[in-house]
Each structure stands twice: as structure tokens, then as C-alpha cells.
Amino acid sequence: MAKSYDPNNVFARILRGEIPSKKVRETEHTLAFHDIQPLAPTHILVIPKGAYVDMDDFTANASDAEVTDLFRTVGSIAREVGAAETGYRVLSNCGTDANQDVPHLHIHILAGRNLGRMINPA
């Protein structure tokens, strides 16, 4: 089933320049910027420029160049901000059960303190 992309979601509006962001990096296929409500001392979002709802949509439909660029950008930013030295978390919520808030694929880079367990045991 094809997923419906909302072209008026907040990240689409950031990509169009309608909403400002504190940019970390922009490449041909991705945009990285600081989260406006950080959950850790380092909290950066990396998004594809293409209209992908979530990780499932992206991995099924993005080009090899888009996939490579997104993941290389995540890794290089983590190293650039020093997060790779002590550790960092990469997180992408996908769908309703994961509490995805914005229907545009976004990857969180979280670092700068002990982040604890990923989730509590069931």
C-alpha cells in the first residue's frame, strides 16, 4: 500500500524555506538541522529532501544515491560533533505504534550524555 505524503508537514515546509531551521549541513539529497525541542545536549535531525513518509517508504522507494547520502550524512555529522567519541543514538520512529510525530522520514542523532536504555523491557 502506498503511503500518502503530506506536502504541508513541518519538514516539507522547512525544506521549502517557509520555516527557518538552524542548519548543520545540506547535501544534494539531505538536510540536517538542530531539533527545536532537544532531548539531549546534541539533538540533530537528518531528513531526506525527497517526499518520503517514513523509513519503510524511504527504503522501498528512494534511489541508491539518496539512501547512501542520508546514512553517510548521519555518520559524518555524528563524528563531526564529537558524538562518535563517547557514543550516540540514531533513532527513527516509523508509524503510529512508534509515535512518529511528523510524516516525513527523519533520523534523530542524540548524544552528549548517558542516554539510558533504549526502551523499557516489555
UniProtKB/TrEMBL annotation:
<feature type="active site" description="Tele-AMP-histidine intermediate">
    <location>
        <position position="106"/>
    </location>
</feature>
<dbReference type="InterPro" id="IPR036265">
    <property type="entry name" value="HIT-like_sf"/>
</dbReference>
<protein>
    <submittedName>
        <fullName>Histidine triad nucleotide-binding protein</fullName>
    </submittedName>
</protein>
<dbReference type="InterPro" id="IPR019808">
    <property type="entry name" value="Histidine_triad_CS"/>
</dbReference>
<feature type="domain" description="HIT">
    <location>
        <begin position="10"/>
        <end position="120"/>
    </location>
</feature>
<dbReference type="GO" id="GO:0003824">
    <property type="term" value="F:catalytic activity"/>
</dbReference>
<dbReference type="InterPro" id="IPR001310">
    <property type="entry name" value="Histidine_triad_HIT"/>
</dbReference>
<dbReference type="Pfam" id="PF01230">
    <property type="entry name" value="HIT"/>
</dbReference>
<dbReference type="InterPro" id="IPR011146">
    <property type="entry name" value="HIT-like"/>
</dbReference>
<feature type="short sequence motif" description="Histidine triad motif">
    <location>
        <begin position="104"/>
        <end position="108"/>
    </location>
</feature>
